[in-house]
Amino acid sequence: MNIESRNMLPEDAPAIADFEKSMFGTCTDARTYKKSCLEEENIYMLAEDNGEVIAYCAIKALYETADLCNIAVKEGYRRCHIAERLLEECILRCKGQGVTRILLEAREGNIPALSFYKKMDFKEIGRRKGYYKEPCEDAIIMEKIL
């Protein structure tokens, strides 16, 4: 493995959208990624293995609060600390922009994600009833104070 992380570029958008669709069954439009990764307040990063996108992290930062929109790692690369390293780099960048807290929502049934976020010092602060569809599930709202 030759894993490197870097900022997401507009030309990465189609690969990220395809990756997201394969992971979650739905995806953000590639045009949205093209636009969002150019907005300087946003922190959009990816990890590659020999040029292949294997992970990405998308954070929208606005003033002192940031929203972790998505973080995902391809199946064969999980449990290799890639998400951890990617998120740590994004958190450092958030701090550099004056962000003091990061929020996220995760499916209540996504135990691996919830465990990962807890490991990364996110705390549960609330719940959104019926937030997710197909299947219908509550969202667990989590926060990390920086």
Written description of the protein model:
The protein has 146 residues and is an alpha+beta fold. The protein has a single domain (3-145), classed as Aminopeptidase, CATH 3.40.630.30. It is 29% helix and 40% strand. It is built from four helices and seven strands. The protein has helices at residues 13-24, 30-36, 82-96, 111-119, and strands at residues 3-7, 43-49, 52-62, 65-73, 101-107, 123-132, 137-145. Strands 1-2-3-4-5-7-6 form a seven-stranded mixed β-sheet. The N and C termini lie far apart (32 Å). 27% of the residues are buried. The mean pLDDT is 92.
What does the secondary structure layout of this molecule look like, with pairings?
Elements: E1 3-7, H1 13-24, H2 30-36, E2 43-49, E3 52-62, E4 65-73, H3 82-96, E5 101-107, H4 111-119, E6 123-132, E7 137-145
Parallel strand pairs: 4-5
Antiparallel strand pairs: 1-2, 2-3, 3-4, 5-7, 6-7
